[in-house]
Predict the structure.
Amino acid sequence: MMMGHKESATIGIKICGLTEEAGFDACVAQKVDWVGFVFFERSPRNVTATQAAALSARHKGGPQRVGLFVHPDDATLDHVLNTVALDVLQLYATPVRALAIRQRYGLPVWLSQPVATQAELPQRCLVDRLLIEPKPPADATRPGGNAQQLDWDLLAGWNPTYPWMLAGGLNPQNVAQAIRQTGAPAVDVSSGVESAPGIKNPDAIAHFVQNARSSKFLS
């Protein structure tokens, strides 16, 4: 049974953690909706603003460019945005800080919302989109990108009226089931389409996109 709010009949697809040309080109070829650049040094997918700009310059138009930041200060955001054009800022931050960033830079802001229980599912969204993902392990060195799968049963009966995206442990094999079970209007994948940390597999990207897009026909 389908649950959750659908933005449209088309599933939004984001491939995060792009670091190299083959992965970026595969995202363009598969016509994904968003590509993500990670600006966080502890991540194996970390890129500099210059590296992100070089990748982005490979194709004009196409997927929207999303910059992922972990509790960034204004100096960090200024440097990145002065080097590479981004369409969306994805944040690990407090809601208050996220709103301040949205006001300062005038760009859509997505806020990561790690959850472990149904009670933690947010009933409202103060920014442009929430990313629902599992809470990281206690010994994790980063707040996301840990290849953990969210317990999809937590989303049973949850019907948000705002844009959101499902993240955490998705891959080509489980993405269709995840969409059917949760009603997610959009999905975010990183390690699930990699051949090594930070190295995207073009075939895996193609299979992920195909399975995500076909999920609505299998409901």
Q: What stands out?
A: Residues 1-8 have pLDDT under 50 and may be disordered. The chain has one domain: 12-218. Strands lie at 12-15, 34-39, 64-70, 88-92, 109-115, 129-134, 164-167, 186-189, 194-196, 199-200.
